[in-house]
Amino acid sequence: MDLTPLWMGAKEEFAPEVRREMERYRYSYSTEDLALLGFDRVFILDSEGIWDVADLVEFVHAQLLELSYYDGVLTQELEAVPQVLRHRGLWGYGKLQRLRRRLMARHAEIADVRARMEGALRITEDLFYAKIYRAALELYGAHELERSLEEKLRVLEATYEMVTEEVVHLRSQAVEVGILALIAFEVVRALY
Fold first, then answer.
1. Half-sphere exposure of 30 (CA within 13 A, CB side)
2. Which residues, including other chains, have CB under 8 Å from residue 62's CB and lie 6 or more apart?
3. What is the Cα–Cα distance from 77 to 185, expressed in whole angstroms?
């Protein structure tokens, strides 16, 4: 049965490319069921009324929502970097440390989300559902979102690391100047 007109919501003749793309995300466990994933729609036909596929797709959407949230949070952190860089030096160290703590917390939260995503794939013991789960992650762009998060985390970590090194260097210079001032003071005091 050709589901393309129903799937596309039109009665025209569709190109083979459209049909191939539709077939790419078509899954059947038996002749009595069908799951058809699309970017903006899902078609599920199951004579037994089992909605596992719908639950699985909903779970993927929840994961995407979490990833999108953290992508936005990291974008805000990246936007704060220029302000941190303007306040470099000894007095900006506290602000940098607060940002670093937030980054570590975000890193842990994102690692937790990713671990749950990988764990969900392992929990799905059924190969049929695992294939649908992987396809939904691919179709909805979860992997691109994960790569975006990883890149933003790398940029933030590198920036904070460089600024921290600069602050440590400035502090060590201040200590050296203080030691030299004490030595000079002792020399002057010993002479007089």
1. 6
2. none
3. 45
Same domain, 116 and 141: yes
The model's pLDDT over 65-123, given as tens digits with 9 standing for 90+, comes to: 999 999 999 899 889 878 777 766 556 667 777 777 777 788 888 888 878 877 766 66
Q: What is the DSSP string of 68-107?
A: HHHHHHHHHHHHHHHHHHHT-SGGGHHHHHHHHHHHHHHH
Cα separation of 2 and 10, whole Å? 13
Q: Please report, for residues 4, 23, 53, 144, the alpha-carbon distance to residue 36 in angstroms, rounded to integers and kept in the order given.
A: 11, 8, 10, 22
* Residue 145 · residue 66 · CB < 8 Å: no
Query: Do 101 and 169 belong together in one domain?
Result: yes
Would the pTM of this model clear 0.85, i.e. be above it? no
Closest C-alpha among 97, 103, 108 to residue 74? 103
Domain that holds residue 140: 51-191
Cβ atoms 95, 160 nearer than 8 A: no
* Dihedral pair phi/psi, residue 71, rounded to 5°: -65, -45
Q: Provide the terminal-to-terminal Cα distance of the chain, rounded to the nearest Å.
A: 105
Q: Are residues 156 and 77 in the same domain?
A: yes
